[in-house]
Design brief:
The protein has a 5-stranded antiparallel β-sheet, covered by helices on one side. Helix content is 29%, strand content 19%. The termini are far apart. By secondary structure, the protein is α+β, with helices and mostly antiparallel strands. The structure holds zinc ion.
Length: 90
C-alpha cells in the first residue's frame, strides 16, 4: 500500500500509526489538507468519505489511473520492478 501511495504522490495530512488521512487522489480534493481519504497501510485498505471509493492498493491504483484491474496489476508490477505474479516463466 505504501508503494501505491508513493506513486500517487499522496501526502498524509494526519493520522497515527498505520492509519493515515489526507486528500483523496481519486477525486479533486478541495484542499491539500483534506482528510476525506483514509488509508490503513497495515491492512492495505483505503476509503474515501467524499467519493466513497474503497478497496485494496490494486483497486486504488486502478481507480486512480482509470485502468481495468488486470491492466492495473501489470502496470503496477512493472513500476515497482516486480514480476507479475501470474505470468509463468520458463
Ligand atoms: Zn475521493
Amino acid at each position: 500500500m505504501e508503494h501505491v501511495l508513493d506513486l500517487l504522490a499522496f501526502e498524509p495530512a494526519g493520522g497515527s500509526g498505520p492509519q493515515w488521512y489526507g486528500p483523496c487522489p481519486l477525486h479533486e480534493a478541495t484542499s491539500k489538507r483534506s482528510r476525506s481519504f483514509s488509508v490503513n497501510v497495515t491492512l492495505g485498505r483505503y476509503y474515501c468519505h467524499r467519493c466513497h471509493s474503497h478497496g485494496n492498493p490494486l483497486e486504488l491504483w486502478a481507480a486512480a489511473n482509470k485502468l481495468p484491474l488486470h491492466r492495473a496489476a501489470i502496470d503496477l508490477c512493472q513500476r515497482l520492478g516486480r514480476e507479475v505474479p501470474w505470468i509463468q516463466r520458463g
